[in-house]
Specification:
This protein has 319 residues and is of the alpha+beta class. The chain has twelve helices and nine strands. It has two domains: 9-144, Uridine Diphospho-n-acetylenolpyruvylglucosamine Reductase, domain 3 (2-Layer Sandwich); 150-276, Alpha-Beta Plaits, CATH 3.30.70.2520. The chain has helices at residues 9-17, 48-55, 60-64, 72-78, 113-119, 136-144, 153-156, 182-196, 236-255, 270-276, 280-290, 299-309, and strands at 30-34, 39-43, 92-98, 104-107, 128-135, 150-151, 171-177, 200-208, 223-230. The strands form two sheets. Strands 1-2-5-3-4 form a five-stranded antiparallel sheet. Strands 6-8-9-7 form a four-stranded antiparallel sheet. Helix 8 packs antiparallel against helix 9 (236-255).
């Protein structure tokens, strides 16, 4: 199969100006390695695995490290924590993007701090990312300190009996909690699952480092990221109950001084979201200001807008 030609910055600008689609898979090249300055520039669609192969050829461990998102651009959009728990922003020197008006801009934390804070962790809502310049030393440190999430189900104890709802595929719920509150949170969540008669299929924990730079972040401390695998019910009623359970678990995380990652927790209510991310309304206002013609709209943005604008209604449950 013939490899696709790389997508140039000029082509990307033209596509954005004309509102034409473009093939993001063509943004997959390592553009430059500056060993003197310790920097590597890579297109946003390149994978972490291909970057490792370029920087550390023959290093099997570097290429086997797993990340939550396969490409650099996807990790940037969610400011995902890397294998060492540090957020993506900690590795970024600068980025090059095409803004919604079709202009190519170099953005960094010194010359464009406001835009930099919005774009990293901005869920891809401020334009098309052409390339990202990363710090080689920071990436090497992430590899050296890489740790896989630890299975903690045996440590904290499984549910004594399987509940009435049998699993098809465990569905993950990710919560964040200060390390000193980890055991208390897990115990409370285990009791809550037992009360709702849901199986706890898996429980993995890892440390994630503080993010003090991006706009849309959970305020500032180190957290334990706790991933619960919850048994999925086989009918609509069970799905409704599963959503209620997840919201109860989110409440527990908040009550223990934590919260949830806004990128992957659609079950959160408006009250829960505003408790953890009071800056969300400001984030959405900035997105509309920068993209007034709404060229960059996705499901995540539609959900958050709906969450903040819909009218609350009274809910009553029959006995």
């Amino acid at each position: 199969m013939t490899a696709k030609p790389p997508l140039s910055a000029q082509e990307l600008c033209q596509s954005v100006r004309s509102c034409a689609s473009f093939d993001a898979s063509r943004l997959d090249r390592v553009l430059a390695v500056d060993e003197a300055r310790g920097l590597v520039e890579v297109q946003s669609g390149a994978s972490w695995k291909s970057l490792a192969a370029r920087l550390r050829p023959g290093d099997g461990r570097a290429q086997e490290v797993r990340t939550a998102h396969p490409t650099i651009g996807e990790s940037l959009a969610c400011n995902a924590a890397g294998p060492d728990g540090r957020p993506t922003v900690s590795h970024v020197q600068s980025l090059t993007m095409v803004t919604p008006d079709g202009h190519l801009r170099r953005v960094d934390r010194m010359t464009n701090p406001g835009l930099f804070a919005l774009v990293v962790g901005g869920h891809g809502l401020f334009g098309a990312i052409y390339s990202v310049t990363l710090r080689i030393e920071s990436l090497a440190r992430a590899l050296a300190e890489a740790r896989a999430p630890e299975d903690q189900l045996d440590r904290f104890g499984q549910l004594g009996q399987r509940g009435e709802l049998r699993a098809r595929t465990p569905r993950k719920l990710v919560l964040l909690v200060p390390p000193v509150r980890l055991e208390a949170l897990v115990a409370a969540c285990r009791d809550c699952c037992a009360e709702w008669r849901f199986d706890l299929e898996s429980l993995a924990v890892r440390r994630v480092r503080a993010d003090e730079e991006t706009f849309l972040r959970l305020p500032g401390q180190e957290y334990c990221e706790v991933s619960f695998g919850l048994a999925e019910g086989a009918n609509l009623g069970a799905q409704v109950r599963l959503t209620q359970l997840k919201r109860s678990l989110i409440d527990l995380a908040i009550s223990h001084g934590g919260g949830f990652p806004i990128s992957c927790t659609p079950e959160a209510t408006r009250e829960q979201t505003e408790a953890c991310y009071p800056q969300l309304a400001g984030f959405l206002a900035e997105q509309r200001r920068i993209d007034p013609q709404e060229r960059w709209v996705n499901g995540w943005l539609r959900r958050q807008r709906s969450l903040l604008t819909r009218e609350a209604c009274e809910v009553r449950w029959g006995s």
